[in-house]
Design goal:
With 449 residues, the protein is an alpha/beta fold. The chain has two domains: 163 residues, Aspartate Aminotransferase, domain 1, CATH 3.90.1150.10; 257 residues, Aspartate Aminotransferase, domain 2, CATH 3.40.640. Helices cover 39% and strands 15% of the residues. It binds 4'-deoxy-4'-aminopyridoxal-5'-phosphate.
């Protein structure tokens, strides 16, 4: 860590409590993470965050899955400093620059080769949701069709089109299809059979002239649902979705905002299944902790007009430099394989933990996207898996008290999610598991004192 300043920058009136109090008075009721994590971060390095009160936390939230290399990784800081010291303009709209050229080259180096061979990239406004909007617009323009196929449990962002794809608004005509899940499978069977039935339903909707579903502009899916509660798509199902869409001329959009850049134990989530989508939506880790979002897509789809998806902030030079450094570091150090290895070990340990705790109804994950679904062991099995949201919130709180930051997700906010950086050490993984095990025990004990 760099030499620590004696007081945190902008030392506040009333210390950390004062900051938190002013936040709750002045910020929107819609604020999110800040409610469950009442900490005031002032320093961070790798997986560790230090609060203004001097407490340290292991960060398993990683900026909602953004920080592939953890906080303030030296290669990221060096890349940012280099741009600043060079005198390059920081704001350039979508003009060509050496920094952007290097980012695009590194990005294309890492794309699935079959896509990279003939791809275009659109730099979007800096959030994942804007890239999702761009992807929807792209496939609607290219196909001349309107509707969209999306999945139960999906999360694609908070703007109108993305929200509609996530099931939360009506601005786009969305046909919702069952995303395969073993736990609380909509068909009550789970496993390969549940996934097969889901694929069959998809085909039948598309081919039945009386299904009421017109041929859509595209299908959007997450290779592993993140916010939806850490649900990995089976590889065979993903391949089937590729076949079904390809056979009917429907562009397949892979939302890799959270799964990209090694997170799932392969460079891209679709790599596990060997699937090449027509469009990939990328954000979070590609900006190396700074805001950046792009779509990459088959050149054939590139028929929209100049200005079709504009935006002032499409040229963040610092984010591109940080992103280039991150992508290159993951590639050169095989951090995707490392995520697979540590993730497998953590998953096995979490399964062992579940064996001792009936309140852990399911353990899921791929690479370093891990989740524990908490349940009420005394409640009857609900078809949608009602989970145990209060217990999950208690586990998150107990984790925080033990110096561990985790997040919740899933249908009923009952899934405790772990998204550690790909740079997590073996010792840190053990510490995370220890603190989590303690927290589960404490939350369970407090529930049944
Ligand atoms: N898609 C996926 C799969 C995501 O996980 C998220 C964010 N959690 C988004 C899209 C939206 O990204 P943003 O919050 O940057 O708009």
């Amino acid at each position: 860590m760099p030499a620590a300043p004696s007081a945190p920058p902008g030392a506040p009136d009333g210390g950390p409590e004062g900051i938190l109090r002013r936040q709750s008075l002045r910020e929107s009721a819609a604020r999110t993470y800040a409610r469950a994590l009442p900490i005031v971060p002032v320093r961070a390095r790798g997986m560790t965050i230090e609060g203004a009160d001097g407490r340290r936390y292991l960060d398993c939230l990683s900026g909602a899955g953004t920080l592939a290399l953890g906080h303030n990784h030296p290669v990221v800081l060096e890349a940012i400093r280099k741009v600043i010291d060079s005198g390059a303009p920081l704001h350039v709209l979508d003009l060509a620059t050496p920094v952007k050229d290097a980012f695009t080259t590194e990005l294309f180096t890492n794309l699935p080769p079959a896509l990279a061979a003939d791809a275009r990239v659109q730099f979007c406004g800096p959030a994942g949701t804007d890239a999702v909007e761009a992807a929807l617009k792209l496939v609607r323009t290219a196909t001349g069709r309107d509707g969209l196929l999306a999945f139960t449990g999906a999360y694609h962002g908070m703007t109108a089109g993305s929200l509609a794809a996530s099931g939360g608004a009506r601005d786009v005509e969305v046909t919702r299809l069952p995303y395969p899940r073993d736990y609380a499978c909509p068909f009550g069977v789970g496993g390969p059979e549940g996934a097969r039935l889901g694929a069959r339903w998809t085909e039948s909707l598309l081919d039945d002239p009386k299904s009421g579903v017109p041929v859509p502009a595209g299908m959007i899916l997450e290779p592993v649902q993140g916010e939806g509660g850490v649900i990995p798509a089976p590889d065979a199902w993903l391949r089937r979705m590729r076949e079904i869409t390809a056979a009917r001329g429907i562009p397949l959009i892979a939302d890799e905002v959270q799964t990209g850049v090694g997170r799932t134990g392969a460079f891209w989530g679709v790599d596990h299944a060997g699937v090449v989508p027509d469009v990939m939506v990328l954000s979070k880790a590609i900006g190396g902790s700074l805001p950046l979002a792009v779509i990459v897509y088959r050149a054939e789809l590139d028929v929209w007009q100049p200005g079709a998806h504009a935006g002032t902030f499409r040229g963040n030079q610092l984010a591109m430099a940080a992103g280039t450094a991150t992508l290159a570091h993951v590639r050169k150090n095989g951090l995707d394989a490392r995520a697979a290895e540590v993730g497998d070990r953590m998953l096995a340990a979490l399964r062992a933990l579940a064996a001792d705790h009936p309140c852990i109804g399911d353990v899921r994950g791929r690479g370093l996207m891990l989740g524990l679904e908490l349940v009420d062991p005394e409640a009857p099995d609900a078809p949608t898996g009602d989970g145990a949201p209060q217990l999950a919130a208690a586990v998150r709180q107990e984790c925080l008290e033990r110096g561990l930051i985790v997040e919740l997700g899933g249908r009923h906010s009952s899934v405790v999610r772990l998204l550690p950086p790909l740079t997590i050490t073996d010792e840190q993984a053990v510490a995370v598991l220890d603190r989590l095990a303690d927290a589960v025990t404490a939350a369970e004990r407090n529930r049944h004192p």
